[in-house]
Amino acid sequence: MINIIIIALIYCAGIVSLLSLLETRDWVPDSNFMYVSTVFPTNSTMTMLLLIDNYDSFTYNLYQYFCELGAQVVVKRNDELTLHEIERLAPERLVISPGPCTPDEAGISLAAIRHFADKLPILGVCLGHQAMGQAFGARVVRARQVMHGKTSTIAHSNTGVFAGLAQPLTVTRYHSLIIDAASLPDCFEITAWSEHEGKRDEIMGIRHRSLPLEGVQFHPESILSQQGHQLLDNFLKI
């Protein structure tokens, strides 16, 4: 019995260590890393989702969450493929991951958003969200406060990926840049926002008014974010 307890404790410690690694921005898996889902969907019509990795450890949290939701996920780094190669993969949905850089340094991300915007649903997360705004002409600027590994509560419109989520919503933020609200084109609506001194502050979510494009500034795939699975599942249903 003691041996069984010791083995169980070692297993749990390993899981905690892995989660700790995945929540650390300084750790990025190499190209041989594979995060295997513990859930194996039997649905033969799984959504094929392409996840563009902007060299960020959170990419594999997104991978895990989408696998658990029943999607077939292909991960490619932002300098690993061309627009033509994306077309050959024929994804049904596209996700642009977080990353440590700016949209200008995010490889194929900007070009992919512009090219596929009217062809398939796209979700941008953190850097991907900023890239979505910039791809349509918005400016990406310094945030009022650097938010690295901090949680905050945000308000939202209860539409798109935010449908049915708690109000307010607790989310995890890792960013020093934001989309400038004044420069966001009219084709987008603001779907989530932070508050400062009782007033609307920074953009936390955007949604295109006529195309299936959604962006979130925070990390729904973080273990500290509330209802992250439901938000990503909402995207799969768009």
Name the features.
238 residues, Rossmann fold, alpha/beta, disordered N terminus
Plain-language structure description:
By secondary structure, the chain is of the alpha/beta class. Helix content is 27%, strand content 30%. It is built from six helices and nine strands; from the N terminus they run H-E-H-E-H-E-H-E-H-E-E-E-E-E-H. A nine-stranded mixed sheet has the order 2-1-3-4-9-8-7-5-6, sandwiched between helices. Helix 4 (109-116) packs across helix 5 (127-135). The longest helix has 21 residues, at 2-22. The N and C termini lie far apart (50 Å).
Architecture in CATH?
A: 3-Layer(aba) Sandwich
- In total, the number of strands is 9
**Order of helix and strand elements from N to C terminus:** HEHEHEHEHEEEEEH
Poorly predicted regions are 1-44
SSE blueprint:
Blueprint (H helix, E strand, L loop, with lengths): L1 H21 L25 E6 L4 H11 L3 E6 L5 H7 L3 E4 L12 H8 L5 E4 L1 H9 L4 E17 L12 E11 L8 E9 L2 E10 L4 E4 L11 H9 L2
Parallel strand pairs: 1-2, 1-3, 3-4, 4-9
Antiparallel strand pairs: 5-6, 5-7, 7-8, 8-9
Helix pairs in contact: 4-5
